[in-house]
Amino acid sequence: MGTLRRWIIASVLGLCALPLAAQHPTEPGPVSVGDDGPPTMFPHSDSSRYLIGGQANIIFQAHAPFHSDYSGTNSLLSRGEYKTSMIGTVFMGFQLNKNPRYATDGIFDVESAGGRGDSEALGLAGFTNLDVVRNPNLGSTPYLARYEIHQVVGLTDKMVESDRTSFSLSTKLPETRLEFWVGRMSLPDLLDLNSIGTDSHLQFMNWSIDNNGAWDYAANTRGYTDAAVAEFTSHDFTARYALGAMPTVANGIDLQYNLRRASGQNVELEYRQGPGFFIPALAKRKGAVRILGFVNKANMGDYRQQNQLYLAGGTKTPEITAHPLQSTMKYGVGWNFEQEVSENGRVYAQFGWNEGQHESYAYTEIDQTMAVGGDYTMKAFGRPNDKFGITFVSNAIKRDHQWYLAHGGLGFLLGDGKLNYAREDIVEAYYNYHLWKGVYYALDEQFVAHPGYNNDRGPVMVESVRMHVDF
């Protein structure tokens, strides 16, 4: 894998060498760095009180047979398979108060998620399709994905331009302000954003790339929670705090509302000047650096304690859920940066770590992750809405978690019955083709070495075709 890693890093850094003209950045926002946003099927007014839009995403994904010395309950199937996932969302917003200094938005989204992932989304810590719901028995019946209130409190009269999004309808906002969101939401709507790698519908598909895999953020099976987010912004700096409800069981659909017993707390600091600030040639290009910390409290098992219980004969195999109802704590940190390096090229990197002692509970089974990648817009070739991206991510788990899986323990995603441990290394590349208005097609290839951290299985190649429509 050493040669592969060197090749990927060289490919990403090669984006910087493309001879493109300089571009002076406009006022950077918290979501977009060097990205003007995709066209849609229908125009949307920036002055109306209403915002009504939507998207549909269909992914066909397949993998060929791959080497496997053995498999278990939660293994990625080695015989080869193909599956299709489908997700559709209607975004609705209404400005209750249009005064930009004290704007109030009501947000209401309806969603339907259908289809399945390869092996029912089991066997990979960095699963290859973020759209897949990890419990296919929930079905495709539409559900309320988001319902929330967004409130702006301006701390200055000076206004700056702001992109209208499905989470904030104002096109002008006070330069220094407080913002609050309260209701049903997904925490990655507002935290751990990265404009190169957080849109699985137009960019990468792997869920350890689109989100920081070590961030075990509060969410139910579908990725949503009831939460409150407070945000302070002043020019290039933003600070965020989020409090969300944890699921009652790992990867569960129901939430626990006793916040003394279970909750997810998150703090993020964002500075919208990237590493290019220290490089004269990049000083005027957009960039951002973000640091995230989280503390979760829930009914989580302790890998070492459950391993010891198994050795003492208390269970037939290690069982992370074989403990009394309790409140334990899991904490971790994340970091990411993004930097525009040319008119069309951008690079990014991210790192995540959590203490790994306690049960992976809400997102995926990753205790440490690191990634590097980039994207390139094909403007120079007459295709301004086409984009190519490539990234490399390496995921890991701690020793007690390794021992648990090696002796037959099951997580909510992993469990081959045995484990010859190695880091799970993934390379993903895509080409996103703009067909017409809001219609896009993408070809995507993912190479996964040591699926599920197992050196006795894989590697596996996963091919995908994606159709995306923005309304």
Task: Identify the notable features of this structure and list them briefly.
16-stranded antiparallel barrel; 18 strands; disordered N terminus; mainly beta; Porin; two-stranded antiparallel ribbon
Task: Describe the 3D structure.
The protein has 471 residues and is mostly beta strands. The chain has one domain (2-470): Porin. It has four helices and 18 strands. It has a 16-stranded antiparallel β-barrel. Strand 16 (424-436) and strand 17 (439-449) form a beta hairpin. Helix 3 packs across helix 4.
Approximately what portion of the residues adopt beta-strand conformation? 35-45%
Shape: globular
Helix content: under 10%
Which CATH architecture? Answer: Beta Barrel
Mean pLDDT level: 91
CATH topology: Porin
Largest sheet: 16 strands, antiparallel, barrel
Spatially, the strands of the biggest sheet line up as: 1-2-3-4-7-8-9-10-11-12-13-14-15-16-17-18
Q: Report the top-level CATH class.
A: Mainly Beta
